[in-house]
Amino acid sequence: MRVNRTAPAILSVCAVLLTTLPLTSCKSSGSAEKIQAANLPPITGKQWRLEKEMIAADNKEDYAAGAVALGQLDAFGTMEVSKLFYHHNLVMVPAGTMVGETGPRENGAIRVRVLDGPQAGQSLWMYPKTAEKLGFPAAKPSP
Question: What is the pTM of this model?
Answer without folding.
Answer: 0.69
